[in-house]
Amino acid sequence: MTRFLTLAYGFVCYLIFFLTFLYLIGFLSNFGVPKGIDSSPAVDLANPFVVNLFLLVLFGLQHSIMARPWFKKRWTRFIPAVIERSTYVLATSTILIIVYALWQPIPSTVWQADSAWLQVALWAVFALGFLIALISTFMTDHFDLFGLRQVYLRFTGRIYQHPKFKVIFLYRLIRHPLYTGMFIGLWATPHMTVGHLLFAGGLTVYVLVAVGWEEDDLVEILGDRYRSYQRHVPMFFPRPGKVHETIRSGAEAPTRMR
């Protein structure tokens, strides 16, 4: 691929991701999108569980397999390494679009907030969760995470080097603020239906499993540096006042593989 086509491909993949991310917010809130998680007509319960579980497994397989180092090593034999990240982002976005399109609603209510103040509070927490998830990507390298930095460096003729992340802001309190933000966004809702519960529960289980693989990869790459980070900084929930001195000083330590 020419440098211009590489740059254009990266930007298109990023744009599709960004729109897909925005759609996720509307999908979960049933607001401002053609199809929300509960907005379609109800169907027979035997079918929606099977379809929805298949969609969640499909997302989990794609998102994890394509993120593993062994897959990347083989995959880049067929595509240029510079667009590997953009292609991963595009594949994830495509699977999410399929999930949105084929998701089967199960509208039975699990819980519902009746008071107006509680509804507003839960929507505020919902928004905060997605804000935390988005902001956390900028605390490492947002544009590298989603493939733009790679194609831009190729366009300008510079050699790509993996960024050295510093443990700053939220990463001083928890190792995976992106996942914590997503958990909040998935579960904070004034009206939890069975379908929403299945979606939130399925993705939560996936993250809890996949984060172990991700951290194994980080330990293999970083060794004792990451083991020290694991010992002193919790995974998802902060322990105020328990920041280790090496982390407090801003020691460099990558905190994300994907």
Strand order of the largest sheet: 1-2
Helix content: 55-70%
- Give a quick account of the main beta sheet: strands, pairing sense, barrel closure: 2 strands, antiparallel
How many beta-strand runs? 2
Shape: globular
Structural class: mainly alpha
The overall average pLDDT, rounded, is 88
The figure for the number of domains is 1
Elements, N to C (H/E): HHHHEHHHHEHHH
The number of helical elements comes to: 11
CA radius of gyration is 19 Å
N- to C-terminal distance: 24 Å
Query: Are there runs of 5+ residues with pLDDT below 50, and where?
Result: 244-258
β-strand percent reads under 5%
Q: What features would you highlight for this structure?
A:
258 residues; mainly alpha; two-stranded antiparallel sheet; 11 helices; 63% helix; disordered C terminus
Give a verbal description of the structure:
- This protein has 258 residues and is mainly alpha-helical.
- The protein has one domain (3-248).
- It contains 11 helices and 2 strands; from the N terminus they run ααααβααααβααα.
- A two-stranded antiparallel ribbon has the order 1-2.
- α1 (3-29) packs antiparallel against α7 (148-155) and α2 packs parallel to α9 (194-222).
- The longest helix has 29 residues, at 194-222.
- The chain is globular and about 55 Å long.
- It starts with a helix and ends in a 10-residue tail after the last helix.
